[in-house]
Amino acid sequence: MSAAQHTKGSLQIPPGTRDALDLFLDHKRALDAASENTIKAYQADIGGFLAFMAFHLGGEAGRGALAGVTISDMRAWMASERGRGISSRSLARALSAVKSFYGWLSEQDEFDATAVLSTRSPKFAKKLPRPLSPDAAQAVRDTAPLQSQHDWVGARDMAVVTLLYGCGLRISEALALTAADAPLKEVLRIRGKGNKERLVPVLPAARDAIEAYRAICPHPETPDAPLFRGVRGGALNPRQVQKMMQQVRSQLGLPATATPHALRHSFATHLLASGGDLRAIQELLGHASLSTTQGYTALDTSKLVDVYNAAHPRA
């Protein structure tokens, strides 16, 4: 969907601001190497804002009108979003996107964007990650291949789960692998968010699981073909992985937080609990900030005390 097609209810984005949004998205793709998921989120959030402002400011509000947006206008937009039932978390994300757009637009059109850039983000409680216990993670791996009547699909699901938990990959990173990446070497080169590359060690169990899947996958391999295939031979859809995990957690009695991404959390938490270095884990996960990695790990107090007692010279 292009920015030109975006609507908020019956509101349309005026042509002038629509073109500005398209240029901004091109900028994010080219210079910031933003992923398509990020682009779609920007497109929806900023598009909704522009459509609202067109109505709020009286119709065909172009780029000049955007330069005159006040704090009161921003409050009106945020109140409108609240009225539509938008959560604080989603509104904070949308505001962040709008600020990014305004930072770029104010440089292009040379105006003062302080009113927008100084708008306070709504407060919300950050959801703490819920990693699985080591036993639960193993149970997920053992149960994943039982969700399909096709042996090759079961082998594929086990391989995906093993990569997520054994290597700490994001779903998008695992599903971006191609047949040219196989057989996996001891170290895998991953291109993650922001087009950043990192090297990830691959456990023998992960390599074995992938080779077991490849041996019985019915679809022919070509170097540029996706490694993980859907039933009809196309690229495996992330939604299918999520559906499989939903079935697994239902069978095992795990909470709704036991998602594919929770396996990545578990990877980080279990490494840290076993004495792994936080900065090394940061590199393995591909995080730009150490604080992000800290949010991905969860250690109970007793474990921290054990680590302290074992490591501190005066303990």
From TrEMBL:
PROSITE patterns: CB, TYR_RECOMBINASE. One of its GO terms (biological process) is chromosome segregation. The keyword Cell membrane does not apply. InterPro entries: CB, DNA_brk_join_enz, Integrase-like_cat_sf, Integrase_catalytic, Integrase_recombinase_N, Integrase_SAM-like_N, Tyrosine_recombinase_XerC/XerD, Tyrosine_recombinase_XerCD. Keywords: Cell cycle, Cell division, Chromosome partition, Cytoplasm, DNA integration, DNA recombination, DNA-binding. CDD domains: INT_XerDC_C (cd00798). Residues 15-106 form the Core-binding (CB) domain. The active site is at R170, K193, H261, R264, H287, Y296 (o-(3'-phospho-dna)-tyrosine intermediate). Transmembrane segments: none annotated. One of its GO terms (molecular function) is tyrosine-based site-specific recombinase activity. Forms a cyclic heterotetrameric complex composed of two molecules of XerC and two molecules of XerD. This is Tyrosine recombinase XerC. The lineage of its organism: Bacteria, Pseudomonadati, Pseudomonadota, Alphaproteobacteria, Rhodobacterales. The gene is xerC.
